[in-house]
Amino acid sequence: MLYDDAQQAAAAVDNSDAAVWANMTAAEAKELLNRGVAVAVIDATQKTEDIGVDKERLAVRYTTTEVAASGVEPVLQRAQDDGLLRAGAVVVKMTAAQIDVAVSSSGLERLVNAATACVVGSSGSARVLVEQYGGTWTLEQLRAVAASGADAVVAAEELAVVEEPIEGSAVQGAQDARLSLAAAFIAGSGLHSDRADGLLTTVVVDEQGVCLGVAYSNGTSLAAALAAAQGVYWSRRRGLWHKGQTSGAIQTLLGVAVDCDSDVLRFCVQQGGAGFCHRGTRTCFGAATGLSGLAQTLAARRKQAPAGSYTQRLFNDAALLRAKLVEEAGELADAAEPADVAFEAADVLYFAMVKCTAHGVTLADVERSLDRKHRQVVRRRGDAKPGVVSSKETTGSEEGSTNPSTSIANPSTTSLPRTSVLSSGIRAALPGEQIRMRVYADDSLTTDERAALLQRPIVDSQEIMRRVQPIVDAVRTGGDAAVREFTARFDNVELDALVVRAPFDVPTLPTAVRAAIDQAYANVHAFHAAQLVGDTHVETMPGVMCSRFSRAIERVGLYVPGGTAVLPSTALMLGVPAQVAGCREIVLATPPRADGSIVPEVLYVAHKVGATAIVKAGGAQAIAALAYGTESVPKVDKICGPGNQYVTAAKMLAQNDTAAMVSIDMPAGPSELLVVADATSNPAYVASDLLSQAEHGPDSQVVLLAVALSDAQLAAIHAEVHRQAERLPRVDVVRRSIPKSFCLHLPSLSAALRFSNDYAPEHLILHNANARACLPDVVNAGSVFVGPYSPESCGDYASGTNHTLPTYGFSRMYSGVSSATFLKYITAQELSRDGLANIAQTVMTLAEVEELEAHRNAVAIRLQDM
Length: 866
Known about the structure:
By secondary structure, the protein is α/β, with parallel strands linked by helices. It is 38% helix and 17% strand.
């Protein structure tokens, strides 16, 4: 798959086993290749020497500019002479007429022959890809390009997935000229049969590449398989054969490939039911062995285990499983003889797979993670974590290193154990499958099941703290040098100046962007200015005057996540209330871009809110710098702002350290949204709100409370979710988050509001009739969006309310950021002579009860003078 948008490609990597190629600039290449993109396609006009990656990870694109035939050969020659020296693949972009000339003149074939002679790393020969502009592909052109040995790049919008038999180049019965995906695949791959009956031998494998069996295909069955995204083949006796249609052993089609001679197909499937073989086994070649066999056995044991099963005991005793993992890893580390190493490694693999199975992680998930790590181009030193020496020396408490040079795991590239009843065993929706929430009925839930729906994914906070503490300690003792080192290590940015101080060089922004920021600033400022209240003065009894007044917190640190992202809205939501409150020193911290600069939109907001400094750092190291101060970073009194789990952990550590003398706004988790909908709701509006949250990330929490909706009404919402999601650039993220989300049927609005209050969402959207009347019944929520014309997006950006809100159920006891976040309140009392006389006996009596004689005397000594 070749993506035009590099960021979309990086997102696609998260949900795909396929090799993802992407067009990008040379400046973007290293970062995106490190995120898992397989091949970076760079325009030939850009330098590739400085990217610093193997040739097989790069492709160079050459585009013809002349329509005349004479414009083709020079470009092909340049691709041969220049491109094959620079990269493992060349992409030649030509018009339809130029493609015909390149084929008929054998110029394309000569380029392919030259590429075949080039050996590129572990990927074999170099490749030649042909891309067309100014027209659309025909099957004849695809066959011709394939015959030359090149690969054609066909735009997705030129293809249609249909299951009818393929006769012509266009979609049968359609009014457009799109190609059938199956027909284009056959033509573009040069697929052909050497059998008398014209059938294609089809090897069927699972996610690990284990062969399940052999079948046959033709154009008709291939079209049906791609349309259904399932294993569909051509039986020599029965014709079209939809595997599992009668037995239930349905196969989910994950990918289709062609062998090197273009006469054999490989179907990669996720096998359901008993297996592929008609004898009820998973494969036609006997029982699976090795890791695949172990994974199958563990999955079966997880569902049902025989009495006395040790595996079942491990599933039920997390502490025992952890102890065995540590024990066996230590024995493997100490093993010396080959036989002993193999024996102990087998034990480690067994317990590791039990751990994986217990958490719904498959062998395919592990292999996918290995493949992604292999594609990383920025390598850490790989030293042991601080405090980890050997299993025999572990004391149970790890001392975090205070030396900035100590190897510390990059929080952004390491995963943490998560457990959740909701996400256990749930997989992402595959392309072609409906993107759909899970549905439950409130009246059929047990107490435990309802409690499970109220849970969020549980993150091992102790493990996070263990990873973050060394970073915080290093910054506390190492100052600027430590922050620079972590920024170079985690963000791949070498900084000259760590801090930029006001006045800033105000960037020139596009007119529309500047106007949007100005309008949002005005709205947010107006709402937060209205939150300021005057001093309070109360005479509690004659002569006793009590007062309360506010003062701004003098020095505040505002964390704005970012780096490659652009988040001026977060800078507004933190900076405006700090400005309104009157904070003397406002310090922003935000990750720098790849060139070490600050995102221009964030810099513009910093100017508007009167920030005094910007720290070019992100993550736990930025929080530590704000909490303790460094040579150039001012120490602050309070830190506010959202961030990932490592940022939150650093904030919590700093707040709990009396040496830091710093407070925070609130703890945080993944962003979340709850929607209440009834029969009056617009399905398209409801779906758009659900998706606006789901696209944040795969861990986004999305809940729909369906109040007395019929099956047809709920189906309309599901259909809208799928329809709108398929058109989103971040559809691959949504394919992961929506299946983890759920819809709950409830009989009444009051029941829905009770569930919402128990859930305590960050965002609550009321799509029901008379939505405003529900506000008195809302007890726990970060922010409420009332009625059909109040999408969450408005609160996120510009309505005026703040979008920095408590998540993870913390709206039970925390409020969102407001002007009060940046204020502290002081009380005062002034007693007159008569006032002291009036209250004296009350104070002295209570002091006697508490046996605090000095307290009593402080009043009594004054009474003696009256």
